[in-house]
Amino acid sequence: MPEHVLVIGMMGAGKTTVGRAVAAAMRRPFLDSDAEILERTGLTVPEIFATKGEPAFRGEERAVLAAALTSPVPSVIAVAGGAVFNPDSRRRIRAGGVVVWLRARPQTLAGRVGVGNERPLLEHDPAGTIARLDALRRPVYRSLADVAVDVDGVAPSGVAERVTRLARVWLDERSDAADQAARFRLSAGSSR
Ligand code: S3P
Nearest to residue 66, comparing CAs of 37, 24, 42, 38? Predict the structure, then answer.
């Protein structure tokens, strides 16, 4: 099972920008939830919300996450912000590799996202909606994350460097632990 780098967090935390930079630094493919949905359906996020509704959009999020995680090539995956509410997706995220949470204060997010059609959930009262969603999602992100990286006041390049460093350490430790376990199993087997 390949060890992916899974980037989680709220809208505006920088999952796409940071994820793409981390993928380049680690020489891995980058898979982004919204882009994968566009590729799969031919529709943008606002188009799906407008024509099919949010539940259908959440279904697409689940489908592209499941597909991304089956990639045999270790990748960097920007996970949909709301995917963490689905128990099956949570299970897949945990099993998929190292989970990096881009942690941001709601004020930082609100300052970044603005009002716009790109994010249908933020059409009305973006700051209030972000605060509400953040309160709901923060404990779930926290429980899923192997590492959290604070993004407030840090340029995306700085965040990406930190994520890359931490992901490498985490993945190296995991593979060392797996090697040791394999050696232990071998030596336990040979002494029988
Ligand atoms: C959403 C995040 C958006 C987009 C959609 C819903 C969310 O992507 O998928 O507007 O519920 O967190 P970004 O996190 O890339 O903004």
Answer: 37
> Is residue 106 in a domain?
yes
Nearest Cα residue to atom 16 of ligand 1: 11
Our count of domains for the chain comes to 1
Give the three-class secondary structure for 108. helix
Going by alpha carbons, the residue nearest to atom 14 of ligand 1 is 11
Index of the ligand 1 atom closest to the CA of residue 118: 10
Closest CA to ligand 1's atom 10 = 119
pLDDT, one tens digit per residue, over 2-45 is: 799 999 999 999 999 999 999 999 999 999 999 999 999 999 99
* CATH for 169: 3.40.50.300
Span 102-155, pLDDT tens digits: 999 999 999 999 766 689 999 889 999 999 999 999 999 999 999 999 999 999
Query: From the CB of residue 67, how many other CB atoms can be counted at a distance below 10 Å?
Result: 12
Nearest to 184 by CA among 170, 168, 176: 176
Within-domain flag for 69:
yes
Distance of CA 121 to the CA centre of its chain: 19
- Give the Å distance between the CA of 192 and the centre of ligand 1: 54
Query: Is position 192 within any domain?
Result: no
Domain with 158, as residue range(s), is 4-187
Nearest residue (by CA) to ligand 1, atom 4, is 119
Cα 81 to averaged position of ligand 1 atoms, centre (Å): 5
CA of 134 to the centre of ligand 1 (A): 12
Any domain includes 97: yes
Residue 189's pLDDT band, with cuts at 50, 70 and 90, is confident
